[in-house]
Structure formats: structure tokens, C-alpha cells
Design brief:
Radius of gyration: 20 Å
Helix content: 25-40%
Structural class: alpha+beta
Oligomer: single chain
Strand content: 5-15%
């Protein structure tokens, strides 16, 4: 791939928090690690009732009946409040905070994704190859995806526990970005979630650059939304806990800026296409946005989690007002949650809801 085909870098759009080395790392690899970025008070508060919510005994692994769990939200704060240093770098990558949507994905919560591993997996003598793993994807369960779509402009991993090597860290496919953007360019009609968005990662078997997320509690990984990734196996049989929010922009990417003032996100796409601009690109179909179909299986767990949290409060002589959950805070709190998270959008008639959590 000739450097002459790349857009200029670092961007002329000034970065307030990213160093030139960090900007170059994001351009080259499609991701960046921000160490010790989450405020400890949120980790402590949100993890305090983690085991209550799962229904598992922390000290008895025989109770860990599921290897992989997605939990619903109970608390949310603004992204910039949870991890201000990481947020500033995210804003730089996007080309400025003013480009980021004011509500969608601006509120970050305790909707944990937990990879427990298993006893059988901990006895494995051979690690599976990430190339051969099923489930490679780019996150999107709510909009028609075009090359210039920014519904999931960035995928974020917030680490609420340490993630050692072989400990279930997400696998990233760095050279997969070029294949994904080419697939999107070759199919200007776009891809719909639940129908064919999985097709954009069809080229993973031809890739060679795979990197696992290895982290300390409090680290944040900021990733391009078109960086293919997949859940890794946890061979250490412990509770690896992350959240996986996103960054949504106000407008689609502009891949034909006359002044060349491309954001880092846009430059990654242009690099993948080996182009300095894409003036001919225009989606031929309407941009569509739907109810997030993956929310259904998470929402189904709320009542059981609330009952467990309330039972613990009552055992301490307290009532349910001591439980910190949006689902106990009245109608306005629920309306705010629905608005911020796309619950007011129409359901995709062809694909409906995803009622069952996917497996590893």
C-alpha cells in the first residue's frame, strides 16, 4: 500500500489531547489504549453489586453456569464524566467534540459484558486461532450501514477488571479495516442489521494482524467503528468484566473535503481504500434507523436483577429506595433512558428483535 495514496497525517484539525504518536498509532492500527482512564469511584460503585446481579457465587465457580453474559443498565453517567481523559482523546479522533451526537451513546452505564471462561476451557492445552473464530463483526444493531455511516463511529472498551493475556480479551483485526471499508464501498446500497451486516467482515480469513485486548482495571480502548473484533476465549476462568459503548456522530462522514481537513476516523477509511478522497460516493438508499434489536434479551434480565438487589437491601434493613437503578427512579428517568438509547425508534419489520443472547 503506497503512502502516496494516504490522506495527509497527522490531521490539520488540531488535536487538544492526542499526541502525534497517539494519532499515528490510531491511524496505523485503528485503536488506542488510554491507561487508568476510568474514575475509580465508578468502578467501585458499579462493581459493588456485580455478583448480586449475576446470581453467581464469587467464590464457587460451579455456580457460574454461563460462560458469557450481557447485563442490562441500572446506572448511567455522561461519557466525559466517567473517563474525562479518554473522552478528550475520543473527541480529537472524531475531529472535535462538536461533531459528536449530543444524546445517543453520550451516557455510559453498567451494562457489563462478562466472560467467565469455564473449567473445561481452563484445561485447554492449545489456544484457538483468532482467525478461525466465528463471530467477527463491527458493532451495529440499529441503522442501515453505509461507508459514510457514523452510528457506530467508534467502539469503546471500558475495562472494569484486569484482562491478562489469555483472559478473554477482545480480539482486534487491524488489517481487517481495509477489507471492511472496501466491502462497504463495493456495496453502496448498504447493509441492514440482522439481515446482512455480518457480511462486511467476510474477509477476515485473509487477514494476518490480530491483537488481543490486554489491560488493567480502569483502562479504556478506543477503536474505529470499522475495526473488526470478536470476543476472545477466557482460559483463566475468572470474571472478565467490560462495557462496550460506542460513539455516535451528528452527521455522516465527509470523504470528499476540499480543504483536506479529515478527521482521524475519516483518514482511516481513506487509508483503507488507498484514496485521498471519494468524491463519487453517495448512498443510493435512504438512511434508516431502528430500535436496537439486541436490547431485548438484556431487558428481559432487569426484573430478576432488581429483585436480587432489593432482597440484599432488605436484608440490611433498607428498602428498595436504597437500590441505585434507573428502573426504580420513576417515569421521567425511564423516558430519558429510552430517548438516549434509541428505544423510541421504530422496530425493523424484517428482523424484529434479538431475543436470545449470542454465544462465544
Amino acid at each position: 500500500m503506497s503512502p502516496d495514496c494516504f490522506s495527509s497525517h497527522p490531521p490539520r484539525v488540531p488535536c487538544k489531547s492526542l499526541s502525534p504518536e497517539e494519532a499515528e498509532h490510531f491511524l496505523t492500527h485503528g485503536w488506542l489504549k488510554v491507561s487508568n482512564a476510568i474514575k475509580p469511584e465508578y468502578i467501585d460503585a458499579w462493581m459493588a453489586d456485580f455478583w448480586v446481579r449475576t446470581g453467581y457465587d464469587e467464590h464457587d465457580k460451579t455456580t457460574w453456569k454461563d460462560e458469557y453474559l450481557h447485563l442490562p443498565h441500572h446506572r448511567q453517567v455522561r461519557h466525559d464524566e466517567l473517563c474525562p481523559e479518554a473522552w478528550n482523546k475520543i473527541s480529537d479522533v472524531c475531529g472535535g467534540e462538536e461533531r459528536i451526537h449530543l444524546e445517543r451513546e453520550r451516557w455510559i452505564g453498567d451494562n457489563f459484558i462478562v466472560n467467565f471462561g469455564s473449567e473445561a476451557r481452563s484445561q485447554s492445552l492449545i489456544d484457538s486461532s483468532p482467525k478461525e473464530k466465528a463471530g467477527w463483526h463491527c458493532d451495529n444493531d440499529w441503522y442501515r450501514q453505509f461507508l459514510d455511516s457514523t452510528g457506530t463511529a467508534m467502539t469503546i472498551v471500558h475495562c472494569f477488571t484486569d484482562i491478562p493475556a489469555r483472559g478473554g480479551g477482545t480480539w482486534l483485526c487491524e488489517d481487517g479495516i481495509a477489507r471492511v471499508v472496501q466491502q462497504l464501498y463495493d456495496h453502496p446500497e448498504g447493509f441492514d442489521p440482522g439481515l446482512n451486516t455480518g457480511d462486511i467482515c467476510d474477509g477476515i480469513m485473509g487477514c494476518e494482524e490480530f491483537v488481543p485486548v490486554v489491560a488493567k482495571k480502569g483502562d479504556v480502548f478506543i477503536m474505529h467503528g470499522l475495526l473488526p473484533h470478536v470476543a476472545g476465549f477466557n482460559y483463566l476462568h475468572y470474571a472478565r468484566v467490560i462495557t462496550n459503548p460506542h460513539v455516535t456522530l451528528r452527521d455522516p462522514y465527509d470523504l470528499n473535503r476540499p480543504d483536506g481537513e479529515y478527521s482521524l476516523l475519516e483518514q482511516v477509511i481513506l487509508r483503507g481504500l488507498e484514496r485521498s478522497s471519494v468524491p463519487e460516493y453517495k448512498p443510493p438508499r435512504e438512511r434508516m434507523y431502528w430500535y436496537p434489536r439486541n436490547w431485548t434479551f438484556k431487558e428481559a434480565k432487569i426484573r430478576a436483577e432488581l429483585d436480587a438487589m432489593i432482597a440484599v437491601a432488605k436484608a440490611k434493613g433498607l428498602d428498595e429506595t436504597a437500590v441505585d437503578s434507573v428502573w426504580l427512579q420513576g417515569e421521567q428517568a425511564r423516558e430519558d433512558f429510552d430517548r438516549r438509547n434509541g428505544m423510541l425508534l421504530p422496530v425493523h419489520e424484517a428482523t424484529g428483535f434479538q431475543p436470545v443472547q449470542h454465544k462465544l
